[in-house]
Amino acid sequence: MSAKCDAKKVVLSVGEVAKRSGVSVATLHFYEQKGLIHSQRNTGNQRRYSRDVLRRVAIIKVAQRTGIPLEQIGKALSVLPPGQNADQQHWQQMSEQWKTELDARIAQLTDLRDQLSMCIGCGCLSMAHCPLRNPQDKLAAQGSGAHFYPTSEELEEPER
């Protein structure tokens, strides 16, 4: 039997995966509950992970650091069969999916930063002229919670 075949049969306990990946056992359980990673149970009903889970956890952590929601990470990982590592082509496909969204988010944050600097400079937070205000509570239609303000080009001129 070759070393390559032996390596494929290596399974890791949840504690080993946590230690090697740098995430907690609870996080691994959460990822599994969300379908991002998969385990098998041994005869003692303990979780055992194949080595490919280490790569999956690394991808999840990189994507989370860039602000990609877990739902989108799950969709991207769903193209990989369980037990298969993401290769260069898979990573390229995943990163391309996220690139457009990240570019848009960067543009929004840059615009917000620039608008915020203007308000800090004047300190007025004028409801009539401040570019950060929410005219006529337009963002209420997007539901409760925080939302990105539109870019300065999207803002309407204040009513006079």
Automatic annotation (TrEMBL):
Gene3D superfamilies: 1.10.1660.10. Pfam families: MerR_1. It comes from the Bacteria. One of its GO terms (molecular function) is DNA-binding transcription factor activity. One of its GO terms (biological process) is response to oxidative stress. Keywords: 2Fe-2S, DNA-binding, Iron, Iron-sulfur, Metal-binding. Residues 11-79 form the HTH merR-type domain. SUPFAM superfamilies: Putative DNA-binding domain (SSF46955). The keyword Transport does not apply. The keyword Signal does not apply. This is Redox-sensitive transcriptional activator SoxR. It comes from Rheinheimera tangshanensis.
